[in-house]
Amino acid sequence: MNIQTARTDNNLIKILRYDIIIGFKGNSPKYLLVVIFTLISCFMMKNEIETVFQGKSYETLRASVTDYLIYFSKGIPVYIPSPDSSFNIPVMWLLFHATVGLFIMDYPLKDISESRFIPLMQAGKRITWWISKCIWNIATVISIYLLTFITIFFFVALFGKVSFSPTAEICDLISEMYVDHAETKVLLAFVLFIPLCTSIAAALLQMLLSFILSRVYAFLIVMCVAVASAYFYAPFLFFNFSMMLRNTVVYPLGFKNSTAIIIDLIVAFLSIISGYCYFKRLDILKKR
Amino acid sequence: MFKILRFELGRAFWNRAFLASLLIGAAIALLHVVQDVLPMVGYNQNFLNNHPEVLPHSIHNKWIGATGYTFGSSLFYSILPILAALPYAKSYAADCKGGYVKNLFIRTEKWKYYVSKYIAVFLTGGTAVTIPLLFNLYLTALCVPAIVPIASAGTFPLFPTSFAGHLYYSWPFIYLIIYFSITFVVSGVLATVALGFGTVIKNQYVVMLTPFFCYLVCAYIATFISCDSLDIMSWIAPNQSIALNPPIAIIEVACLAIIPGFFFFKSSKNEEIY
């Protein structure tokens, strides 16, 4: 390893540590929002269960961790436009993705739009800075999902049953999907992994767009893609993958996990590469 | 007062963000016309030649506000608060951050600035949403006739039990004027939500998105407490996928106006220039 490469690696670790500490610190109040939304959604599901299963034994009412995760990521079934049924956006799903967008909207641009050139100079090379921002972006999305999972787990420990096996009745009547035939690990693989991949792809795309356009327009475009994904059933509208009701596990014509991962990876990869190409040629003083 | 109001209105309506908001709204309105109205022109002509007894498509069931099942309508009403907040909602946070208020406060009284700011944000929010809707209505009117809705046809979105349903089936344009006014007020109020949040959140970009989050949270709470009438997103479109319940709607919009407004005007007393 030559001196130049070693210095770049060292800079990457330094700038990454800085991004993780400062970025997470800046976002800390927003994590409270995630906890609140998650708890409200959990109570919402608990209420629904109590209403639907009224009169049944207490054991039936206790949902597992997987039941809650399925409820969170269910989205809506494929919409067939008809004058008889208005399109209703899945609010919980959109709110979650909007919250993810809010987390990653601001921090990466602060280094170039405000008087904070120091991190950029410390990085030494633009690629180091960009990679650090991409890693921070991915880490932030993972932290949001982790926090959601932990909140659900604690909620389940208090009000549900600490188990990962889905309850067929609850999934059928509350989340409107038949999962009896599916293996628990397949379901868990979906609810834990696919929405996370989609959110990472969306977050990277939003970061790229916020560099090219501006923070709010980038957020607006990502939200438009999310609404279009809920309305249309098409692979290039990648938010489709984050809805379990459109996955092949519960919908025979749905998307396979492999398709979802490949397309999410393509979006993420293209966002990283195009972002770097754009940032390499960016006149930062003009951008400010 | 009028001097500062005129000045604020000038800043509010004469900026790139306002134009961008109008263009985005107009693009969605145009998309709706291309996707869902233009195909009906040929349909009306061909089908009615053979079946004159059939009621042709009317602007009252084809324009963006009447078609809750089209993509254009779904998109427009989903991002409505962002369109309302885009032109000027962040201005207060930006003025405070950039030190602009300091210059203003030594030239005019504080309350005048705050009142002018509130009015300007309210008006830009309402205008940025209403103009694309009017544009869509105009384009739709160029393509399909303005046939008065007939309840028995079963092709019109409103139930006679919906808010002002009788008006829709008797004087549809009066209904539209009323609904445009409702849309204007609600959009304006949603935009002013950002002013209230601007007093506690210093990040102007986050402030700008608070109306959108409030809009989603209202829908979220509506589901949580099983009170659909609280969901602004459902009743703000004239097709009323959930019937507008006037008392609930008034209370909800009043809360959205009063609570952030209270914090905004209260901050005028606490705001220290230096």
Question: Would you kindly provide a brief summary of this structure?
Answer:
The complex is a heterodimer of chains A (288) and B (274). With 288 residues, chain A is mainly alpha-helical.
Total of helices of chain B: 12
Strand content of chain A: under 5%
Low-confidence stretches of chain B: none
- Continuous helix count of chain A: 12
| Structural class designation of chain A | mainly alpha
> What is the mean pLDDT of chain B?
90
Indicate the topology.
The complex is a heterodimer of chains A (288) and B (274).
Chain A: H1 3-52, H2 58-61, H3 65-72, H4 91-105, H5 107-113, H6 118-123, H7 126-159, H8 168-173, H9 184-212, H10 215-231, H11 257-280, H12 284-287
Chain B: H1 2-13, H2 16-50, H3 71-78, H4 80-85, H5 91-98, H6 100-105, H7 110-143, H8 165-170, H9 172-198, H10 204-224, H11 232-235, H12 246-270
Helix pairs in contact in B: 1-7, 2-3, 2-7, 7-9, 7-12, 9-10, 9-12
Describe this structure in words.
The complex is a heterodimer of chains A (about 290) and B (about 270). Chain A is built from twelve helices and no strands. Chain A has about 290 residues and is mostly helical. The two termini of chain A are about 35 Å apart. Chain B is an all-alpha fold and about 270 residues long. Chain B has twelve helices and no strands. In chain B, helix 7 (about 110-145) runs antiparallel to helix 9. The interface of A and B includes residues 88, 91, 216 and 231 of A.
